[in-house]
Design brief:
By secondary structure, the protein is an alpha/beta fold. It has helices spanning about 15-25, 40-45, 60-70, 85-100, 115-125, 125-130, 140-150, 190-200, 200-215, 235-240, 245-255, 265-270, 275-285, 305, 320-325, 330-345, 355-365, 380-395; strands at about 5-10, 30-35, 50-55, 75-80, 100-110, 155-165, 170-180, 185, 230, 260-265, 290-295, 315, 345-350, 370, 380. It folds into two domains: about 5-125, Rossmann fold, CATH 3.40.50; about 140-395, EAL domain (TIM Barrel), CATH 3.20.20. It binds ligand C2E and calcium ion (2 copies).
Length: about 400
C-alpha cells in the first residue's frame, strides 16, 4: 500500500475512535484516533489521506477543526460525523468548501459497521482488491519474528461463519494478524511461511490457540452462549501425539466446552503427515472437539483418504467458490464436495463467499454454512462483537 494512506479520526468519544481504527485496520489500513482536536497539528502528516471528524466535541468543535485544517492546508478528504440535523451537516460542508477542503462523505451517528466499511473502502481504492498489505519481505528478519512472539504482537481477527438456512452466525474463525510496531497490521502470509521455515509454527499455534480460547468467552452476550470458535492448526502441531491432551487442558483452563471448538486443518497438511495426524485427530474427535478439513479441493488424492479422517466439517476452498460461476469444473467440484461431505455425514462450509449469487447457488445445492466478505471481513475482537450484536438485532426484527 502506498505510504499516503493513513486515516485520522477525531472524536471525543474514545469508543468510536477505537471502533473506527479497528475497522480500518481490518481492511489493512493504518489509522490514528484522537479524542483531542488540539493534537491535530502534530498528527496531520502528509500520509493522512482521510480524516473522520466528529462535529460535536466539547473542547474544540468540528467547525473550529475545519478552520484549523484549512489553515494547515490539508489535502486529505474529510468525512463529517454527527448525530445532529442534516442542515447543520450541510452548513459545515459549505464552510469546508470555502476553506478549500475536500468533503469525502458523511456518517450519521449511530452508524452501522457496514456503512463505515463501505465508506472506508470507497475512499481508499487499494482496499477493494487488497484487504491486506503485501509482505515487506526484506524488512522482516527471523529475529523480529521471534521477538514478536515474545512481545505478543500477534492478534486474532474473527470472521463469522453463517448457517445458510437460519442466517445466524453460528461460528467465528480466528485468523492471525501481526500488529507490527513499525509496519502496521500484517496478514498471515507475511509470517506463517516464515514460522514454518524457522520451526516455530508449533509455538505460534499454541499462542494463538490460547489467545482465541481466552477471547472466545467475550463473544457471549445477554445469556446467549458465544458462537463456536474455529482455530487453525498446522501440521507441525499434529506431529505431537500429546496434542489432544494439551489442547483439552487449554480448553478447560478457559472453560470452553470441547464441542464449541473447531480445529481446522488444511487438506494438504493431512497429506503430509497422514499417520500421526490420524492418531491425533481421532483422539481429538473422541474428546468431542469439532474437526474441519480446510481448503478442501486444493490437495491431491484426497477423496479416498477422506473416509478415514474423523472430520465433521469440510471447507470448500475459496478459489472454487470464487470461480464457480465462470468455470464449470470448479462448479462441479463445489457440487460434488457438498454431496460427498453430506454422504459422509459432514457439515459443508463454503469459504470466500463474496456475492449474493454465490450464496444463492450454494443454498440451492444444500451447502450448510458460508463464510466470506458478503457477510463480513475478519474483524478485530470488539468490531466482531459489534457485528454479532447487529446481526442478532436484525434477526430479532425479521
Ligand atoms: P484460511 O484458514 O483458509 O482462512 C481463510 C482466508 O480467506 C483468510 O485469509 C480470510 O481473510 C480470507 N477470506 C475470507 N473471506 C474471504 C472472501 O470472501 N474473499 C476472499 N478473497 N478472501 C476471504 P487470511 O486471514 O489472510 O489467512 C490466510 C491463511 O493463514 C488462513 O487461510 C490460514 O491457513 C492461515 N492462518 C491464519 N491464522 C492462522 C493461525 O492462527 N494459525 C494457523 N496455523 N494458520 C493461520
Ligand atoms: Ca481456516
Ligand atoms: Ca480455507
Amino acid at each position: 500500500m502506498a505510504n499516503a494512506d493513513r486515516i485520522l479520526v477525531i472524536d471525543d468519544d474514545r469508543d468510536i475512535g477505537e471502533l473506527i481504527a479497528a475497522t480500518a485496520e481490518s481492511l489493512g489500513l493504518r489509522c490514528t484516533a484522537t479524542t483531542d482536536a488540539a493534537e491535530l497539528p502534530g498528527l496531520l502528516t502528509p500520509e493522512v489521506s482521510l480524516i473522520l471528524l466528529d462535529l460535536m466535541m466539547p473542547r474544540m468543535d468540528g467547525i473550529e477543526v475545519l478552520r484549523l485544517l484549512g489553515q494547515l492546508g490539508s489535502t486529505a478528504g474529510v468525512v463529517l460525523m454527527s448525530g445532529i440535523s442534516k442542515r447543520v451537516m450541510e452548513t459545515a460542508e459549505k464552510l469546508a468548501r470555502t476553506l478549500n477542503l475536500t468533503i469525502a462523505g458523511h456518517l450519521t451517528k449511530p452508524f452501522r459497521l457496514a456503512e463505515l466499511e463501505d465508506l472506508l473502502r470507497g475512499h481508499i481504492p487499494q482496499v477493494k482488491s487488497a484487504p491486506a498489505r503485501p509482505c515487506p519481505q526484506v524488512e522482516v528478519r527471523d529475529e523480529d519474528l521471534r521477538s514478536a512472539l515474545r512481545n505478543r504482537e500477534f492478534v486474532l481477527f474473527y470472521q463469522p461463519q453463517i448457517d445458510i438456512a437460519s442466517g445466524e452466525a453460528e461460528g467465528l474463525e480466528a485468523l492471525a494478524r501481526w500488529r507490527h510496531p513499525r509496519l502496521g497490521l500484517l496478514p498471515p502470509d507475511c509470517f506463517i511461511p516464515r514460522f514454518e521455515a524457522m520451526g516455530e509454527m508449533d509455538t505460534f499455534c499454541w499462542l494463538m490457540a490460547d489467545q482465541g480460547l481466552e477471547e472466545a468467552r467475550r463473544f457471549a452476550s445477554n445469556g446467549r452462549p458465544a458462537p463456536r470458535i474455529a482455530l487453525n492448526v498446522s501440521v507441525q502441531s499434529l506431529k505431537d501425539l500429546k496434542f489432544p491432551d494439551t489442547f483439552i487442558g487449554l480448553a478447560g483452563k478457559h472453560s470452553i466446552p470441547a464441542e464449541r471448538i473447531t480445529v481446522e486443518i488444511t487438506e494438504s497438511c493431512l497429506m503430509q503427515e497422514p499417520s500421526s495426524a490420524l492418531d491425533v485427530l481421532t483422539r481429538l474427535r473422541m474428546k468431542n472437539v469439532q474437526l474441519s478439513i480446510d481448503d478442501f479441493g486444493t490437495g491431491y488424492a484426497m477423496m479416498q483418504h477422506l473416509v478415514n479422517i474423523p472430520a465433521n466439517e469440510l471447507k470448500i476452498d475459496k478459489v472454487f467458490v470464487g470461480n464457480m460461476h465462470t468455470n464449470s469444473s470448479d462448479r462441479v467440484l463445489v457440487e460434488k464436495t457438498i454431496e460427498i461431505g453430506h454422504e459422509l455425514g459432514m457439515t459443508v462450509t463454503a469459504e470466500g463467499v463474496e456475492t449474493q449469487a454465490q450464496l444463492d447457488f450454494l443454498r440451492r445445492k444444500g451447502c450448510d454454512r458460508a463464510q466470506g466478505f458478503l457477510f463480513s471481513r475478519p474483524l478485530p475482537l470488539e468490531a466482531a462483537n459489534e457485528w454479532l450484536k447487529g446481526r442478532r438485532g436484525r434477526a430479532a426484527q425479521a
